[in-house]
Amino acid sequence: MKFDRVKSLDAILATAKKKSLNRSLGAFQLTMLGIGGIIGTGIFVLTSEAAQKAGPGMMLSFILAGFICMCAAICYSELASMVPTAGSAYTYTYAVMGERLAWMVGWALILEYAIGASAVASSWSGYMIGLIENLFHIEISPLWVNSPSAGGYINLPAVVITLLITWLLILGTTESARANAILVGIKVAALSLFAILAIPVMNTSHFEPFMPTGITGMAGAAASIFFAYVGFDAVSTAAEETRNPQRNVPIALIASLAFCTIFYLLVSLGAIGSPLGAQPITGADGSILAPGTLALEQRCRAIAATGTQDPLPCSHEALAHVLRSIGWTRIGNLIGLAATIALPSVVLMMIFGQTRIFFTMARDGLLPDSFARVHPRYRTPHIVTIVTGIGTALGAAFLPVGTLADYSNSGTLFAFAMVAVSVLILRRTDPTRVRPFRAPAIWLFAPLAIIGCIYLYLSLDLIAILVLPVWGVIGLLIYYGYGRSRSYVGRGIEVSDSMNS
Fold first, then answer.
1. Are 268 and 63 in contact (CB under 8 A)?
2. 3-state secondary structure of 288
């Protein structure tokens, strides 16, 4: 179904050529960008929440979420090879289903990238504070590291790291990618060390019962830890800054996702088999407590008061806590240090992705022209990077990490589903167009991606489910109040003459 304003693929490519970004990224840097975006808060932080929701069955949750992402990645690969420009799902939707749905996808991607970056920055703050307290035995007032909902004033460390990363992104894409590659190496080394130490000593009896919360709990955990995979699509947002994107983008998309899925399974295997186990915490009546609730927090405090080690679902630094439980206290602290050093790469990736979405929407006239201005020296969209950085810092300062992650997932699932719909429609409406990467079995993988995204969306908590339609209504008000009347497609022009080149 097409709407009244569809921007053809030829017009999109022509616009990108007139107003382009510097192509400086190769296949390795692009893959590192994907891995940097994927490995982060999900595995370092949300492992505890997955254990509380699904117990040892969280391994199936990682597999389910990873499979759905792989189906979406195959769809992304075909479209990214055909349209190697910034914009990702927003651009693909514009070319296939029209401006209104494209705007909605772009608007939903704010939930994925900007809100997701806030979540990662907030979780980084928790690791950093935990590391300081464990290494130096320095107590830091929670008033300056907690959100107001947790009894604090502001999460100040999260604000600082977000603003530093914003500054790095303004300096340039190549510089950011180099820094990201170093941070990715640190994360991969940390997770490898965790698996090497934890898996050989795992207790297989801790895998029983394997699914204490059943299919529903496993699906709920998959919906939450879907955030662990968010980030691979940032590869497609960097297509316009990639050398030979028709080859390098599909390679980076699929390679980064496959690599991270294997790592996640190895890490979850070690965590479940540790002395902590992964069985959910129950209340006095035997019912399984919901993660993030006051009841669970109070139960965890009661367990700690007995002198017993905190169970995995109670930990705010899961992997470091597991290693301490098997006698590797110093290595556990090093894992915490690695997370503290490396998690900023995920914030970098997410802010990077959001700025490229805004850049493309502004280049189409749906947002102010200033959002598409490129810095004369650094050749980066500096204005939109500053705006995104400030917004991300505010979210990290005042909102809790778990809530941010679920909100981010709702926007991501919508965008992924729209990409899968777009690739199917384009196969029917433009079958002869050259496809440098032609996705295999697309009539199988695309429907699986759509069904899987809908299933995970409906498995989210009710508030997270409601966030997407409410956010969408706000977006439509802005579209009809500003963007529609200024759209270049609607006005019959391709690119604003007022933009600086």
1. no
2. strand
Would you call 201 helix, strand, or coil by DSSP?
helix
Among 22, 21, 62, 60, smallest CA distance to 38 is for: 62
Q: Is 347 part of any domain?
A: yes
pLDDT in tens, 84-106: 665 677 888 888 888 898 899 88
Structure tokens at 57: 């069955």
User: Positive or negative CA dihedral for 116, 121, 123, 127?
Assistant: positive
Domain membership of residue 327 (yes or no) is yes
- Strand extents, DSSP E, 143-240: none
Our count of domains for the chain comes to: 1
Long-range contacts of 263-267 (CB under 8 A, 24+ apart): 263/39, 263/43, 263/188, 263/191, 263/195, 264/42, 264/43, 264/62, 264/66, 264/228, 265/59, 265/62, 265/63, 266/191, 266/195, 266/199, 267/43, 267/47, 267/191, 267/194, 267/195, 267/319
Phi, psi torsion values for 282, nearest 5 degrees? -110, 155
What is the rounded average pLDDT of the residues 268-290?
86
Tell me the residue type at 384.
V
Query: Is the distance from CB of 321 to CB of 312 less than 8 angstroms?
Result: yes
Structure tokens at 244: 């030979």
The model's pTM is: 0.81
Q: Is residue 493 part of a domain?
A: no
The per-residue DSSP string of 364-381 comes to: TTSS-GGGG---TTT-S-
Residues of the domain holding 203: 35-362+379-466
